[in-house]
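Z., the sequence and structure:
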Amino acid sequence: MVIRELEFRGIRIEHLGMYFEELGALQRTDMFPYVYEADNWKGQILSEEEISFTSSFKVNTVQVRFCAKDDHALDELIKNYRYKTTRIGG
């Protein structure tokens, strides 16, 4: 099993969990760490914190762990997950 942890900012944990479900996982826990499991991979939402860039600009930061059976499966999972977290400014 290979593991990689990433940090996401400015995305609610409810949405991050929904993205795991959209990729085929089932939610297994309802508290930190939130665990999502699929046939060949697992995702975990580990923690959420708020960080301040200025006194009035604050954003959440969420630690997410990805686990898969091999490097190829892990890269594919993260690629698909990042696609869902992409935000286009305008």
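The beta strands are 2-9, 26-27, 34-37, 41-52, 58-68. The longest helix spans residues 71-85.

Let me know what you think.
H.
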